[in-house]
Amino acid sequence: MNTGLRRYVTRYPNQLRSRAVVKTLLYRVFMLVVTVAVALLVTESTTDAVSIGIATNIVKTGTYYCYERLWDRIAWGV
Questions:
Q1: Where exactly are the transmembrane stretches of this chain (predicted)?
Q2: What's the Rg (C-alpha) of the chain?
């Protein structure tokens, strides 16, 4: 790794993995509600809105968790 970047990246995360999991799940529940509400406005179908909300949030939960873990290793701005 470039020595200039080493001061911004740490090998040791700043938060517990369990904390990151809880934050991720609570955020995704909130976003599930938002997604279903928007999908309901667009599709006018409760079944379709819930299906869209669940599918997108399963994918987004995993990606958000990975994103959080990555940023937890970056010391810049902390």
A1: 20-42
A2: 17
